Amino acid sequence: MAEVQRHILEVWGDFACFTRPEMKVERYSYPCPTPSAARGIFEAIYFKPQFYWQVDRIELLAIPKYIPLRRNEVKDKIPVSAVKKWIAGKEQPKPIYADADESITGDAKKGRTQRQTMALKNPRFRLTAHIVPRPDYESQQTAYDEQFIRRASQGKCFYQPCFGCREFAAFFRYLSASEDSAKPVDYNQDLGWMLYDVFDLRKPNGSEAPPFITLFQAKIDHGILEVPRFEDDKKVRKP
């Protein structure tokens, strides 16, 4: 089995919102990314169904600063089944009317609504993760690592990484293990039960994969959040 190689990304942006699940009406951000949000940044750069990303550490490089925003959110969403029919040419695409009322859509639950968001301003983090090949693909570990390093070093990504919401773009640069970078800030907070992920990382995630909510006890110690392994059933609470 190939030796585990950990990859480090420094990420930053103008805004971020990693919504706490207990805040249902107002979007209130965690002070740092959840493991699933960090995983999404790595996957935006390089991903294959033959492996999954295990986030190891999240470091805060800037003191969390909050900013209140009021955002428009549509109440409706396009089902995956409808998209498949549009692709196959079986149905004509139907738009979502963001400013439509009940007289147009025939449904009072559709349209848009305004929600208050407590977002992070000018966030900056350092993320550490490694690739975990699925069974029968362990021999490809080195190749996966090399491809990620090449893509991340050149700033390539399949789609623009984001900080929780698509409109909050995240920028990144790859850091080698010996490269100097900013030190974590002196920030401490016990976050309690934090969302770990919404999928079962042990199984390849398709567009119709069922939700698999996992939680863990999160604590930021001097700007560092250590993330337990997904397979650790004692530290990661699973359904």
What does this structure look like?
The mean pLDDT is 89. Strands 1, 4, 7, 10, 11, 12, 13 and 14 form an 8-stranded antiparallel sheet that branches. Strands 2, 3, 5 and 6 form a 4-stranded mixed sheet that branches. It is globular and about 60 Å long. The protein is 15% helix and 35% strand. The chain has 4 helices and 14 strands. With 239 residues, it is an alpha+beta fold.
Q: Helices and strands, in N-to-C order?
A: EEEHEEHHEEHEEEEEEE
Instruction: Give the overall pLDDT as a whole number.
Output: 89
CATH class of the largest domain: Alpha Beta
Instruction: Report the portion of residues in β strands.
Output: 35-45%
Separate helix tally: 4
Number of strands: 14
CA gyration radius, whole angstroms: 19 Å
Which features would summarize this protein structure in a list?
239 residues, alpha+beta, Alpha-Beta Plaits, 2 domains, 8-stranded antiparallel β-sheet, 4-stranded mixed β-sheet
Summarize this structure briefly:
This protein is an alpha+beta fold and 239 residues long. Helix content is 15%, strand content 35%. The protein folds into 2 domains: 6-68 and 116-237, 2-Layer Sandwich (Alpha-Beta Plaits), CATH 3.30.70; 76-110, no CATH class.
